[in-house]
Structures are given as C-alpha cells and as structure tokens.
Amino acid sequence: MAPTKITLQTNQETDHENMSDCKSIAGNATTRNIVDLLLVITIIVLLGVAAPIIRGDYCDIDECTSGNHSCPTKAHCINAIGSYTCECFHGYHGSQCLDVDECKLGIHTCDEHANCTNTMGSYKCTCHVG
After folding, report:
1. What is the spatial distance between Cα 126 and Cα 7, in angstroms, rounded to a whole number?
2. Where's the EGF-like domain (predicted)?
C-alpha cells in the first residue's frame, strides 16, 4: 500500500478583530492565573505561619515574666507572641513614662476654690483657706 499524501490549506487572510479578542481573552486568563497563583502563595504562607500557632507548636518566650524587657518602671509589660509592649501607668505618658502634670495641663478636677498640686502619677486638691 502506497503512503497517502495529505495537503492542508490555510486561509492567508487574518481576521484582525478576532485576533484582538483572542489577545484580550489570553490577557485576562494570564491575569487570572497570576491572581490565583498569588492567592495560593498567600494561603501557603499563612498556613505556614499560623499552623504551628494553632497546633501549639510555637514556643513564645514571655519577656514580661522572665524580666527580659526594657519597659520603664512606671509601665506594665504586656506579652505578645514573639515580642512585648509597654503601657504606661495612669498619670504617666511617653516612651519613658514620664509624669503627666495634670495641674499645668489643666486636666484636673480640682474645684475653682482649690489649689492643684502635682504628685507623681496624679495630683491633689487643697481647698483655699476660708
């Protein structure tokens, strides 16, 4: 049996309108693929970080109870996973937890017939004589 010869004919004319539709569809598919890939990567990263915490595999060192923190003496140490924060006691402010002068700032509740005296972390009111 002799080999069969097959001839393919192609239309040399290009339909430019259909080509732009194809490019648009391909572009949208590529964008969708990239978004899907980023979503998968995000999920993997989140699972990699969150899974040990959820399972209880993560060992946090409590800097507050171990004394390995640098909070000022007028602040509470608040433990966080992998870190800690410092919160100033009432009447203190700033990174060094300095005394708030309520009298000077006018944020006291002393009567108009009383003197305001600042104290460390607070203030006191003393009535005028008479």
Report:
1. 110
2. 60-98, 99-130
Cα 54-58-64 angle, rounded to 5 deg = 115
d(CA 10, CA 15): 13
Q: How far apart are CA 113 and CA 119, in angstroms?
A: 19
The pLDDT of 111-129, averaged and rounded, is: 96
Return the structure tokens found at 26. Answer: 């391909």
Q: How far apart are CA 127 and CA 114, in angstroms?
A: 4
Averaged pLDDT, 32-52: 77
Q: What is the pTM of this model?
A: 0.50
Per-residue confidence (pLDDT) for residue 4, from 0 to 100: 54
